[in-house]
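Input record (one chain):
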Amino acid sequence: MKGFEEIRLPQVVLSSPQIPPGEEVLLVAGGRKPRVNWLLEAAENRTVWAIDRGVNACMEAGLLPALILGDADSASPKLWKAAMERGAEVMSLSREKDDTDFQVALKALASRSDGVKILVTGCWGGRFDHAWSNVLSVLGNLRGSTGYAVLADHRELLTFIRGGESVTLTHLRKPEAVSLLAFSKQCKGVTIRGVHWPLEKTELDQDFPYAISNRPEGEEPTVVGLDDGEMGLYVSWWER
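The corresponding structure, as predicted from the sequence alone:
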């Protein structure tokens, strides 16, 4: 799409004027492992950082991360050592710290560049408190920056839309559901097109999240926009 940057994943392409050009970094965390073929495709043309147990998913897939980061409390010692011996840079962290390993990785990326495109995987399927911390940490990291972030694997995707922003999803594999989640008290001017239940300049309230389980209609892309607030765009490819 002319004038739009893209983030390409195996099952969908995100296009938005808010996506910055430049470096893309894939953060592999220690939650549910993405499918090997998905991970290898997602890693193409991206710098890969493994966060603690994320090194297991990388090395088991034959993917050497550029950096392994964490306190190594949940990673396989054998795979951690193998990544080091093959040349991965290491950022060792203390187990006694305030920030999570994931939050340290986000801060390290923010200190490198303001406009990094971050793809996070290995962030689903584990404890709810871990997932909640990861999601809000990414959203907080985006505030005041020109970066862009997507949390995704072969089953789920979450990205963020702030006031005045829009995103277009071109589906390479049709999802089961598309949902809109208010991360601010109110989201105003919410628009979604190319779905079974379109919305046009609608208001969403955080206390009544009804705009879930929508679905794409036909072969058209899904277009989402927001005038004011902070909103999550969630897409699911769960298999029945």
